[in-house]
Specification:
mainly alpha, Cytochrome Bc1 Complex, Chain D, domain 2, 2 domains, two-stranded antiparallel ribbon, 2 strands, binds heme C
């Protein structure tokens, strides 16, 4: 080792955003001052994301439930955790988290760093404990130098693991869909007729964009869309015990939605057609905590014909990222190997 190597700072990582996104004020990037994004930190995070030593019996990594070709979501209705424990909820996609304000369906983690602490110890997830995990990682010869490259010295603790995971997750950017080509890059041929009709519906009569707003196709909200008149899973209310929060869930992004079935916090809908049919026919407008943005449904104003529904689904499918290079959310060519 050269003298002074320990002082080497990791290399700042600049996220590769499409040019339209650089000037969009909704996409201004702010990183936590104590966990800046670096090449070495994100690379370590990528490896840790696929590291099964993070789970109690070495059988699960984050990637077991957040699968890259499904935009880091889980195609199973509910995820299977340690020892076959069934989770309560569907694992959401992980994408564009650099702009997210809170995490989990019930919004219980206020940063992606804090989020990353949870699954390792969660019984329905990896069922381990942090002392054990840190000790295991210390014994894997590859890790101390990777932690040194990312954080300046080779010490391994839970905070550094969470910080590296957070850095990797912030690189999961998805802003390159056919919709973006059409809307932001002025390519009028990027959408077919039915998709354009669906887009117009989405932004007007169907009221979808009031909550799933571009450019991220989500709001930073926790809302009740009237899935049930009496919710089984209380969502945010289950955590806060505040009546007004009952049945409220984090508003998901609709980017890559064609790849992230099944849908809703409990994975109750298998297809986008079922989701659109729900919004057309089955919204429980009597739910006491129904979101104010659902007022058009209460007023009976949202009427969608068979053609409208097909057009909406066609439009939703244009939100799939087409950039499938290995560092992108929608890498379809291969799963990263566990021994990356
Ligand atoms: C056993 C399956 C499983 C494993 C393993 C797992 N997760 Fe998850 N993950 C889930 C489920 C289920 C949820 C939703 C839980 C909820 O909201 O209550 C979730 C939620 C998340 C979210 C929140 C996304 C959002 O938009 O709010 C992030 C980020 C995340 N997981 C990252 C990770 C990381 C990092 C790891 C590894 C340290 C990991 N997960 C391991 C199943 C899993
Ligand atoms: C009041 C705000 C609101 C409106 C209006 C709204 N949504 Fe949603 N949407 C949500 C929330 C919140 C969820 C998550 C609900 C849950 O899982 O409990 C969701 C879930 C979804 C999902 C499933 C996402 C996933 O990852 O599982 C799709 C697809 C969807 N909405 C499409 C639409 C379409 C199409 C419209 C217009 C017809 C629409 N939404 C109108 C707030 C809204």
């Amino acid at each position: 080792m050269k003298r002074g190597d320990a002082l080497n700072k990791p290399t700042p990582l600049v996220l590769d955003l499409p040019s339209w996104a650089l000037t969009d004020t909704a996409l201004k990037l702010e990183f936590p001052y104590d966990n800046p994004l670096t090449v070495e930190g994100a690379a370590l995070g990528r490896r840790l994301f696929h590291e099964k030593a993070l789970s109690a019996d070495g059988s699960l990594s984050c990637a077991s439930c957040h699968v890259q070709r499904f935009a880091f979501s889980d195609p199973r209705t509910r995820s299977m955790g340690m020892g076959g424990t069934m989770g309560e909820r569907n694992a959401p996609a992980i994408q564009n988290v650099a702009w997210d304000h809170f995490f989990f369906w019930d919004a219980r983690a206020l940063s992606i760093e804090l989020q990353a602490f949870a699954p390792v110890t969660g019984h329905a997830e990896m069922g381990s404990n942090w002392n054990k995990v840190a000790e295991r990682l210390r014994r894997i010869p590859a890790y101390p130098p990777l932690f040194a490259a990312a954080f300046g010295d080779g010490a391994i603790d839970s905070m550094r693991v969470a910080f590296a995971l957070a850095q990797f997750e912030r690189t999961m950017i998805s802003l390159s869909s056919r919709f973006d080509r059409y809307f932001h890059e002025g390519d009028s041929t990027a959408l077919a007729l039915s998709e354009k009709r669906g887009k117009d519906l989405f932004f007007t009569r169907a009221n979808c964009a009031d909550c799933h707003s571009p450019p991220l196709f989500k709001g930073h909200e926790v809302q009740n869309i009237g899935l049930d008149s009496i919710p089984v899973d209380l969502g945010m209310g289950g955590r806060t015990h505040i009546a007004w929060h009952m049945g409220r869930f984090k508003t998901p992004s609709l980017r890559n939605i064609a790849a992230t079935a099944p849908y809703m916090h409990d994975g109750r809908f298998a297809t986008l057609e079922q989701v659109v049919d729900f919004y057309a026919d089955d919204v429980n407008t009597n739910s006491p905590t129904l979101d104010v943005h659902m007022q058009p449904w209460v007023n009976g104003e949202v009427r969608l014909s068979i053609q409208d529904r097909a057009d909406l689904v066609a439009f939703l499918k244009t939100l799939t990222d087409e950039d499938s290079s290995p560092t992108r959310v929608m890498d379809r060519r291969s799963e990263p190997h566990d021994d990356l």
